[in-house]
Amino acid sequence: MSATLSQSAHFLDTNLPLFADLPHKVADLSPATVAFGRKEMELALHEMPGLLALREEFGDSQPLAGARIMGSLHMTIQTAVLIETLVELGAEVRWVSCNIFSTQDHAAAATVVGPEGTFDRPAGVSVYAWKGESLAEYWWCTLQALTWPNAEKGQNLILDDGGDATLLVHLGAELEEAGKNANPDDATSDEHRVILETLVAVRAEKGDNFWRPLAAQIRGVSEETTTGVHRLVERAAAGTLRFPGINVNDSVTKSKFDNVYGCRHSLVDAVNRATDTLVSGKKALVVGFGDVGKGSVDSLRGQYARVAIAEVDPICALQACMMGLDVVRIEDVVADIDIFCTATGNFNIIKVEHMLQMKHNAIVCNIGHFDNEIEMAVLEDMVKSGDVEKIEIKPQVHEWKFKNTTHGPKGGGHSIIVLAEGRLVNLGCATGHPSLVMSASFTNQVIAQIELHKDAESYGKTVTTLPKHLDEKVARLHLDKFGAKLTVLSDEQAKYIGVTPAGPYKPEHYRY
Known about the structure:
The protein is of the alpha/beta class. It starts with a helix and ends in a 15-residue tail after the last helix. The chain is 43% helix and 13% strand. It has an 8-stranded mixed beta sheet with strand order 9-8-7-10-11-14-13-12, with helices on both faces. Strands 3-2-1-4-5-6-15 form a 7-stranded parallel beta sheet, sandwiched between helices. Helix 3 runs parallel beside helix 18, helix 4 (77-88) runs parallel beside helix 5 (105-113) and helix 18 runs antiparallel to helix 19.
């Protein structure tokens, strides 16, 4: 083991050195696990025509040669195919999952070993991820993926999901520039405290010039999700964004396919795997009717649940009405709902005061944003105070038994079933979106990375969405999978509506 591993102090509860100098850290590199992951990757690639097409189009030209990409995105089978696509196009890659529960351990193992390696001689990508990490382990993993063996040649691009890698780099560099250290006592949540403790530990070991040179090498980031884009836009508006960002989330072939059609598949998949409950006939409340909420409603209605939504946006609420959905306030219906699902991108949506009123064994989950759409931190505090008992049914499925309510069995305390501890239920309790959906999202990501590697500086420190013709290209790459044949406009027809026969066919402001 290296000198770094033997000399560096352990970080928080990880029993790991802060800078471990490890080539990878995953749960299991056994031959069976690696073989399982590799086989599922082969099957997934067949269902990911966009990524396959990019390999065929760009494999010879190697447009990502010289790109050193740090990825922070759910370490699933589909992500493994994305990673190996980036590598096939010339990139060097290091990877971390962006969620403590979302890693598929066989996907991580197969990615570390690579297509040419063996379990005892890995020849793939450095991955730091396993299912069921603690928060400290999660941020330790993020730090490892950001710390390349040669500091002079660290990452020059980030591929982010939720903005955590981008956040850590920005906070670290800002504190160094201000001549300040992080103060964990300023934390607003358990996870925020771990982030600040990470920065304190890095300062203690590396001094006050670690983050700035690391940040200076980064030419750009492509961001996968609504939350991460929101963070980037806030920084751009405040003038604190250090490198350009490409907003992959709002490409139509990402937002609609991933958020609507992906959730339409994966929400009920997760509820079924976690609980085996009959969804049909149950009363369900989806909180938030944006793209994720729309897909979630479709998922539940597909099983003939009786679905209502809660919304703050009058346009989204009117859309729900046009679909025959009741638009309600959670406080008015909380005692009558069987399945709750948050999909807002906001925080403190389902509060403990709501949980205290829920019917016995109501199912509560989130498919929107981190773990704070549901007041999980307050629930944990109630365990410490003795007001609630937390009972693990199986990993990522917990019964929370309230001690002081009276509408449970025989007039005693009632329970609720919380899935994935309030984090993304489709990745915590199932396997996320199917491969064909993720092909659309990840084709956008590869195109964004190629664009940034080619010409990041021309964007300035802004947040940009890929142009319409690339959005349409992503769609075209997937049509053969469905046997779809596009109509071709004549020159006269194209001129009549003000487009070219090859597209783009809609203005930038068009809402699909």
